[in-house]
Amino acid sequence: MSRKVIITCALVGSATQKSQNPAVPYTPAELAESAALAQKAGAAMVHVHAREDDGTNSTRVERIREAYDRIGEKCPGLIVNCTSALGAGATFEQRMEQIALIKPEMASLNMATMNFAAVNRKTGEVLGDYTFENRLEKVAEFARLMRDSGVKPELECYSMAGLENYHYLSNGGCFENPVNFNFVWGVCGGASFRPGTFVDMVSALPAGANFTACGVGVQEWPAVAQAVICGGHVRVGLEDNVRLPDGSLAKGNYELVEMAARIIESLGCEVATPDEARAVFGIKKR
Predict the structure, then answer these.
(1) pLDDT at residue 124 greater than cutoff 80
(2) Which of 77, 86, 182, 283 registers the highest number of CB atoms within 10 A of its CB?
(3) What are the structural domain ranges in the chain?
(4) Mean pLDDT score, 172-187
(5) Which CATH architecture is the domain 4-281 placed in?
(6) Is 69 helix (H, G, I), strand (E, B) or coil?
């Protein structure tokens, strides 16, 4: 039997705008429609940030819940993974509150403090830069909240530092097996995709752990391919990248999922269903 590979679709993040690709969803209705098309294309899970109608990031629990509920109504069975980041300026209390109240099946858990920036590669000009603070004591507090709320954490690692922080905290009872990691490649302030670095991070995983990989911009597709080759799962979506491998704008999140599915199948694997993903990730179905 072929190995089942889970596709996560990150519908929209905290930075991508409609000016970059008109298919970027903002409203709860747009997010739900985009999620439905992604599910039809093969996504077992969607990763969700909430936006206001004008595209600004939302930290309002009411707005986040509306997006979460609309996706659930439109996409029965689909796993909805809520972000715990919420974008620049969000307080730790805001980040925790919405997870505690909504209690999604899965949520991201960022594992290290890091610079988070954009840089013009031609000129070296820094276009945006903030410190994304994730102190270890707060990571542990967040992990305990998720454990006690029945929310499975997805541990976001932008470099080896995030994975090492897991090992520092792993004996504190914060995490339950199976532990699920997401390697994020290509954020300025984190690690760029390099095959050797990727293999090093896979080698440092705890026994029995799962991993997913995603890449920003042109780093999306090599990260997806190597994740499949190395025994992991994949994430694509307009949060990370707005273009197909040929450089054309994706017509929607679904086209990125379709491309990921083709890569998975070309490497001799099969695309997992939502319930197969729950079994792999140890998610308790709502």
Answers:
(1) no
(2) 182
(3) 4-281
(4) 97
(5) Alpha-Beta Barrel (3.20)
(6) helix
